Amino acid sequence: MRFPSNTIEYQLYKIASFRVNYKAKFENINYTKHNDFYYSISEIVNDILGIKEINIGVTLENSIREFINAEPAYRVCKDNICGRPDFIKDYIPGEIKSFAREVDPTFEKKGILQAALYAWLYGTRRASFVSAIYDIDSNDADYAIVKRIDFYNVIITKISIKKYLRMVVA
After folding, report:
1. For the chain, is the Cβ count within 10 Å smaller at the N or the C terminus?
2. What is the signed CA dihedral for 57, 72, 114, 98, rounded to 10 degrees?
3. Could you tell me the superkingdom of the organism this chain comes from (predicted)?
């Protein structure tokens, strides 16, 4: 099922941008689908953007979450959609995307759309999006040096996803 690109509408506000020199540890990830009866936030956004899911790789999420002093979030489900934001801070869900050397616009958009859907899942109209630019540490390939962190507020203005869900789960 292909979700139309106008399924999610939002306003994006850049809150802050910081140049940092933070050493962050890479962690291996392996995404697995937990239940065939639920659609994940990532699957919906990948479908909207036409992205093929990558199920293995590395991430800096835990290190960046620690740096911004946020808490890990729990998985939440609503209307046959489930998801776990990367973090919760001040009761606001958030998504983290990290990029080597420069921002990838497609995956930046993915993070923003995921943040908007997490806001909807959590019953709020606001979410956070954090973008981090890094270089691989030349002394230790298990680490990255985060050079810049950008903070955004994502305010959802319209989500029309329920009418498409009936077609997906029926």
Report:
1. C
2. -40
3. Archaea
CA-to-CA distance for 5 and 103, rounded, in angstroms? 21
State the Cα–Cα distance between residues 2 and 111, nearest whole angstrom.
18
In the beta sheet, which residues pair with residue 27? 59
Return d(Cα 150, Cα 128) in angstroms, integer. 10
Task: Write out the DSSP string of 60-101.
Answer: -HHHHHHHTT-BPPPPEEETTEEE--SEEETTEEEEEEEEES
Token readout for 68 is: 């911004």
Residue length, the chain? 170
Q: Distance between CA atoms of 107 and 50, rounded to whole angstroms? A: 11
CB within 8 Å of 139: residues ≥ 6 apart = none
3: its two tokens: 């979700």
pLDDT lower than 70: segments of the chain: 1-6, 30-37, 53-56, 162-170
Backbone angles phi, psi at 74, to 5 degrees: -100, 160
